[in-house]
Design brief:
This protein is about 75% helix and about 0% strand. The chain has about 290 residues and is mainly alpha-helical. The protein has two domains: about 90 residues, Orthogonal Bundle (434 Repressor (Amino-terminal Domain)); about 180 residues, no CATH class. This is XRE family transcriptional regulator.
Length: about 290
């Protein structure tokens, strides 16, 4: 018997689809399909997970014949449901708590911060341009463009490494167990609503700053304050929304599966990200001259 025959048999005894088995192992459905088509072979850690999942030895799984084994010799396959205590028989028993073993929460927090900071810096750079040069309509076009480029370079410096890290994290951990309790999710939704309200208030305050500084001999300071408030407002809203998306683990799992299935397209997009990073570095070199 081959590994493929054993895998198909064991999966059939649990009435698991390829997608369900893929989620248990943290791989894509295409990977399971390739294993069963003998186009590829799982890594050793995946083989160990299969042994733990189906209650068999590694030698039997790879070289043995599990298709002829009686059901009673594989209690974890079909008898687990019968032997497991029912919920009503153990009302005081607590369900096992799922932990964040891959650092998902910290990763998503950093991603939300970097994205929000990039948006805020880019918008605020417009106000800095008005303050330093008076805007591109004031006749200092090269200086105005330089300020814009600095803002773009800083935004790229924040977003490009973040994007690469996120794609790498998705590829390494395509499936995350939902470890957030309902209370944490409700708290995240409440904070998102509060963040949106704070963002709106900051935007309204920013729109009033040009009139506040109307008595000054120049509008440059008012313009800088306006775009500073707008950038801060946008950053607060983006951060609040992404922190709420952080607890939607199903959304992450769906996106991660798409990244794995994209294959070559993801590699091409990564190449474009690398090109953007090189352009950013070129801009910084030119600005230092």
């Amino acid at each position: 018997m081959t590994f493929r025959d054993n895998l198909q048999y064991l999966r059939g005894t649990r009435t698991m689809s390829q997608a369900e088995l893929a989620q248990e192992l943290g791989v894509s459905r295409q990977s399971v399909a390739k294993w069963e088509a003998e186009k590829s072979y799982p890594e050793i850690d995946k083989l160990i997970k299969l042994c733990d999942l189906f209650g068999c030895s590694l030698d039997d799984l790879v070289r043995g014949d599990l298709t002829g084994a009686p059901v009673e010799e594989c209690p974890q396959v079909e008898l687990a449901a019968e032997e497991a205590p029912r919920a009503e028989d153990a009302p005081d028993a607590e369900a096992p708590r799922v932990v964040d073993e891959h650092g998902y929460d910290e990763h998503m927090r950093v991603r939300a911060w970097d994205t929000a900071a990039a948006v805020a810096v880019f918008i605020a750079s417009i106000g800095v341009d008005f303050f330093i040069t008076g805007g591109h309509m004031a006749g200092s076009l090269p200086a105005s463009c330089a300020v814009y480029l600095v803002g773009i370079a800083i935004a790229l410096a924040l977003t490009m490494p973040m994007y690469r890290n996120h794609v790498a994290f998705q590829q390494a951990h395509p499936h995350i167990e939902d470890f957030y309790p309902p209370a944490r999710k409700a708290e995240a939704a409440h904070r998102k609503a509060s963040g949106v309200v704070v963002g709106i208030v900051l935007a309204v305050l920013g729109l009033g700053t040009p009139a506040l500084f109307a008595n000054f001999h120049t509008m440059q300071f008012g313009s800088m304050t306006l775009f500073g408030f707008l950038g801060l407002a946008a950053g607060v809203v983006v951060y609040a929304v992404m922190m709420e998306h952080r607890v939607e683990v199903l959304r992450y799992n769906t996106a991660a599966q798409k990244v794995l299935e994209a294959g070559d397209d993801a590699d091409q997009l990564a190449d474009l990200v690398g090109l953007a990073q090189r352009l950013k570095n070129a801009v910084l070199v030119e600005l230092r001259r």
